[in-house]
Fold this sequence. Notes:
- The structure holds 2 protein chains of 2 kinds.
- By secondary structure, chain A is an alpha/beta fold.
- Helices cover about 30% and strands about 30% of the residues of chain A.
- Chain A folds into 2 domains: about 30-240, no CATH class; about 245-390, 2-Layer Sandwich (GMP Synthetase, Chain A, domain 3), CATH 3.30.300.
- Chain B is built from 17 helices and no strands.
- Chain B has helices at about 10-20, 25-35, 40-45, 45-65, 70-75, 80-110, 120-135, 135-165, 180, 185-195, 200-205, 215-240, 245-250, 255-260, 275-305, 315-325, 335-365.
- Chain B starts with 7 loop residues before the first helix and ends in an 8-residue tail after the last helix.
Amino acid sequence: xxxxxxxxxxxxxxxxxxxxxxxxxxxxxxxxxxxxxxxxxxxxxxxxxxxxxxxxxxxxxxxxxxxxxxxxxxxxxxxxxxxxxxxxxxxxxxxxxxxxxxxxxxxxxxxxxxxxxxxxxxxxxxxxxxxxxxxxxxxxxxxxxxxxxxxxxxxxxxxxxxxxxxxxxxxxxxxxxxxxxxxxxxxxxxxxxxxxxxxxxxxxxxxxxxxxxxxxxxxxxxxxxxxxxxxxxxxxxxxxxxxxxxxxxxxxxxxxxxxxxxxxxxxxxxxxxxxxxxxxxxxxxxxxxxxxxxxxxxxxxxxxxxxxxxxxxxxxxxxxxxxxxxxxxxxxxxxxxxxxxxxxxxxxxxxxxxxxxxxxxxxxxxxxxxxxxxxxxxxxxxxxxxxxxxx
Amino acid sequence: xxxxxxxxxxxxxxxxxxxxxxxxxxxxxxxxxxxxxxxxxxxxxxxxxxxxxxxxxxxxxxxxxxxxxxxxxxxxxxxxxxxxxxxxxxxxxxxxxxxxxxxxxxxxxxxxxxxxxxxxxxxxxxxxxxxxxxxxxxxxxxxxxxxxxxxxxxxxxxxxxxxxxxxxxxxxxxxxxxxxxxxxxxxxxxxxxxxxxxxxxxxxxxxxxxxxxxxxxxxxxxxxxxxxxxxxxxxxxxxxxxxxxxxxxxxxxxxxxxxxxxxxxxxxxxxxxxxxxxxxxxxxxxxxxxxxxxxxxxxxxxxxxxxxxxxxxxxxxxxxxxxxxxxxxxxxxxxxxxxxxxxxxxxxxxxxxxxxxxxxxxxxxxxxxxx
Lengths: 391, 371
């Protein structure tokens, strides 16, 4: 019996010892100072005679003195003294695909390129649709990067955008974060979709994508959101302004946090802050088997500028009037926006998302053929409340 | 026989994690390939066969309350057949252990620990499995008990949070086409019959049940039914978030789902909730692998030496080495998936075998008295 116990204990102890030393599973561990953490990736089509080449730009934040980093931009690390501007290394390479371009960059950094910290992906406006599809597939299926980096577009060459130096010393990711944060209390026209959401649209074909456009600016931190780029598949079809972008996002995402919306009533300019928008899209089979759509939108808003009207606390008559005006204004704007989108054959409002359920036999390609002619009814209701110390 | 120590709720939890475990890393892909976007219906279709299986195992337990599969099989079907049938169960359980330790090793190697060879990760998993198996069933049960408090809250959170995270789109299940489910009826049937196979562990842990008898049925049924939401979540939620066909393109849909719905946190570099979940799921996977491995080793030991008080530790270690060696044949998740398809078919054979054995036990009442 004693011998049997010993027989059990020896392997058990051996296993415990090995488990203690090996359960972490680390192998060829690479210290943090040997890793180059990538925070932003830019995608462009390269100007090359070889054709079909993708230009990849990476931003790798670095901590160090003024002279220690590379080009400006990039995210500042936690704990960076406020007096020290965020520094970043900007790498640029082209290749037949993202993989090849990144491989070339590996030799340019003194450690391992770690893409697991990727926060933003920028798409150059001139990017070839095939290159964009190829790049997205590479990011999602052949190289481990998170599925959650935020995406935006730019009208410029991505590497030029990444070289912007913020006068305040803020890093690129911090500036991009701030643009979105300010948007929610401003025009509401900035929304960065996550890369997996873009892949869903490109692969599942339930609508077309929209990317906020960020360009260089002379004031502020050197960057500004100028509107949104709408796509037909992976091809950039057109650009819309900030107010249209707010309405477009409200329909496309069905639920949107809102932003500020200007409108006019009796010749006076008013401004309301939309606190939240909910949209429901209903599809039905219309004449000639073409889909017929109804978009119902509900916006909760507060009046920021009364336009000089007196708005008594206990009488909503004027507010009711303004609600109606704002709602009709939004409907008209949505109608005009749809016309433009139909002209570009871009289903950026993601109307097909509902059509595919109601008319499963209609493919996305079929839908795109009838899309320029389909009728959509927009019904907007606004709940407007007064806020602040209005007269 | 020492005092029985396994209550029916403990057994139900053991059965549940045994059924689901690392299945979330390969079952969604497997079912998507069989039934397309209607794959979410398979976990529901699989409930009746699971109840039949649980009842069969319960019946065998009532006939042989103090014996394990490898001990009563020779008297029930004769020595030669017992080796064939016991071998089938052993193969299935070894296959389960192999799939579990390997699929998770590949997942980690693909994502979090990219510089660690999969074989090293398999070896670390197998070390823990071997250690617990040598320590015995009671240790396995207690490790499993301890997990409920650590893992269950996180699992529940990972199932409930997506409903509040506005990431689920139920229209992604549409259009519902029955033809998709029935496109390959044989494979659907095989997957459905195998899915809730956790009740089989009663064939090994039955003698430890306290009280014996009805507890086996309660544990089998409760364990199988608890597994339903687990399977539904891992198969349906990726569809709800990613839609079709994108969900089908992902290597690990259920793991990717956790990544995209995880609440944002500011922790660097371990900044994602899915990382925490991965660690916790690794524990579940290891316990599941332990259950499979222990079942296989115990059955093998009982077939060779039915009277032995415990299985020989060197047998356990040898089997562990075999497991690591076999895992080296898998050159990536694709080969693991190919093996999983075969393993699921093997599981269907085992699932059908249990009612057959119960039937034999029913028509041969003398078998229980031949010790």
